[in-house]
Amino acid sequence: MIIFAIETSCDETAAAVVRDGREVLSSELFSQADMHAMYGGVVPEIASRNHVGHIGRLAEMAVKNAGIAKNDIDAVAVTYAPGLIGALLVGVNFAKGLAMALGVPLVPVHHIRGHIAANYIAYPDLEPPFLCTVVSGGNSIIADVRGYTDICIIGRSRDDAAGECFDKAARVLGLGYPGGPALDKLAQGGNDSLFALPRPVIDGAPYDMSFSGLKTSVVNIVHNAEQRGETQSDKALTDKASPNKAPQDKEPGKASRNIELIDKASLAASFSAAVSDILVPRVMAAAAEFDREKIAIAGGVAANSRIRADFLRTAEAAGRTLFIPPLNLCGDNAAMIGCQGYYEYLAGARAGMDLNAYATMDVSG
Length: 365
Ligand code: KG4
Fold this sequence. Notes:
45% of the residues lie in helices and 18% in strands. Helix 4 (111-122) packs across helix 11 and helix 8 runs parallel beside helix 9 (305-318). The strands form 2 sheets. It has a 5-stranded mixed β-sheet, with helices on both faces. A 5-stranded mixed β-sheet has the order 8-7-6-9-10, sandwiched between helices. It has 2 domains: 2-122 and 331-346, 2-Layer Sandwich (Nucleotidyltransferase, domain 5); 130-328, Nucleotidyltransferase, domain 5. The protein has helices at residues 33-37, 44-66, 85-102, 111-122, 162-172, 179-187, 212-240, 264-289, 305-318, 327-330, 335-346; strands at 2-7, 12-19, 23-31, 75-81, 106-110, 130-135, 140-147, 150-156, 294-298, 321-323. By secondary structure, the protein is of the alpha/beta class. 5'-O-[(R)-(carboxyoxy)(hydroxy)phosphoryl]adenosine (KG4) is lined by residues 10, 136-138, 163, 166-167, 178-181, 184, 299-301, 303-304, 331-332. 5'-O-[(R)-(carboxyoxy)(hydroxy)phosphoryl]adenosine binds next to helix 5 and helix 6.
């Protein structure tokens, strides 16, 4: 069965062709990251407009590179939730038009289920049940994957998603957007225990997580360093050039340069270690409690080298099998939607021409 898949939930426009859920015949992606970088984050309207501008081109490329004809397509799968509503609507409406023109079923796919399914592409023999954590820019969950379409959340972030936290920490460190990959790189040269950062515990909810306090700690460390640096800088200026110059006469923006006074690599490493310490032990404990021998990770943050290394080490020590998708399948893509779309189709999921998009939706469906 050949599924044509579309993904437009955030700032990646993607189209793919997948055979029988596991074989990716083509996977095309246009990342808008550069267009959002100057704003320090995704601007929803810009994302929607760029999806409109690129979806047709990517769809043509996906069909061409898969080596199929349009009438070989048996169903169209599309991400319909969760995500940026305007962005999702572009994909949903394109998918409706395509399904109608081809006379094939339209299959709605939950974005997080798609991330989990990235593991089925990377590991053709992987089958549920297994435990999976999905850590991305918009979501951080720990789920018990009981069947391809039977997914139960057992833990989630109570506030920010892990990726959102990486992006914010990277931003205050002056690393631009998206910050996760840059912060990961910077952390390589750092001391991961130089900064004492919080690892919050939520009473009565052992698998729930909280990342916002960690984010605030990093922001405070950087701001405090800037303020301390501002004083030193004023003193140096005063001593050298103008002994009577009052501190309030200093040039605007001078303080921000003093972020250089802190050990950014060690802050990045300490931050990455804290995120990993919040996530990895919870997933391992959940695997033990739910008696799952197989553990999978997914989502953009699953690309993080510290988190990957910690998962590898702890899973091996616990005698559990770890499934980690390659980097290109961690971030948003349409192949994972085509893969999950196949299992949703087998389970009977069909949408009509009234299919809507939803900014939020529980992965359990
Ligand atoms: O899954 P994804 O591409 O989009 C969503 O569905 O949200 O995840 C994007 C998130 C961003 O926050 C990005 O900074 C983060 O994943 N990310 C990383 C790394 N690569 C991407 N975070 C930490 N380390 C990385 N290497």
